[in-house]
Specification:
Elements: H1 3-21, H2 28-34, H3 39-47, H4 54-64, H5 68-73, H6 82-90, E1 99-102, H7 105-109, H8 111-114, E2 125-128, E3 138-141, E4 156-160, E5 170-175, E6 182-189, E7 192-196, E8 208-210, E9 214-224
Antiparallel strand pairs: 1-2, 3-4, 4-9, 5-6, 5-9, 6-7, 7-8
């Protein structure tokens, strides 16, 4: 089922539910206003010209009574559970379902100690993560060119501390003698572990051996590149 079919099904299902309940009929105007979009955008959604990004799906999901991840890519069942639906309606704070904090590289190096006491305002921003992830997942903005061409300077990476760091995993690591975490690929060879940049033209060391002098903060599970 493509996005056009999902948005049409969700819209008609919610219209039918409201009609049965004797409530005012859902309109496309309500939908595009809830999305923070325009009437032209709504036209494109329903004719199949354009889809929605995940942030927009999150904004309209409660109006349509569907799971935003289903609306985005069918990764979950269509309907919200009763408990989730109730939570959406009574929540007084920002909707952070499925979102992760964008933090600094200094914070990333001490994330395992800070995550349980982390407050909403401690993040630079809260971003929707399009992948399944643990509750301790965080986001970072890539700095520098050591991981190009796959990870460009300025890209957002999503880092899951609960994902196993295996050979060739791309990891965020805190070195004991550094104040900030670093981002490299993990290489496991002959019982030893190394960090290496992906950029073949990187002028620095090609392999950095790590042992007891480094802590792996998490494994990169995806990225977002802004236009």
């Amino acid at each position: 089922m493509n996005f056009q079919e999902r948005i049409t099904l969700a819209f008609k299902t919610e219209q039918a539910r409201r009609t049965e309940a004797g409530a005012p009929r859902l309109t496309k105007t309500e939908l595009w206003k809830a999305a923070g979009a325009t009437s032209a955008a709504a036209t494109h959604w329903f004719n199949g010209s354009n889809g929605m990004d995940l942030d927009t799906c999150v904004r309209v999901a409660s109006l349509l009574n569907v799971d935003p991840y289903w609306l985005f890519d069918e990764s979950r069942p269509m309907a919200l559970s009763a408990s989730k639906s109730e939570a959406v309606n009574i929540s007084a704070g920002p909707d952070l379902r499925g979102r992760v904090p964008l933090i600094s590289w200094v914070q990333a190096g001490h994330w395992n100690e800070a995550v349980n006491s982390f407050q909403d305002g401690d993040a630079d921003d809260w971003l929707t993560c399009p992948r399944s992830h643990s509750r301790s997942t965080f986001a970072l903005r890539v700095r520098g060119i050591s991981m190009e061409p796959k990870y460009r300077d300025g890209a957002i990476i999503y880092v899951d501390p609960e994902k196993s760091a295996d050979h060739l995993s791309n990891v965020v690591v805190q070195l004991d003698d550094e104040s900030e975490a670093t981002f490299k690929q993990l290489v496991v060879e002959g019982g030893k572990r190394f960090l290496r940049p992906l950029n073949p033209d990187w002028p620095g060391p090609k392999l950095i051996e790590i042992n007891g002098n480094a802590t792996i903060c998490g494994v990169v599970i995806g990225q977002f590149i802004e236009d």
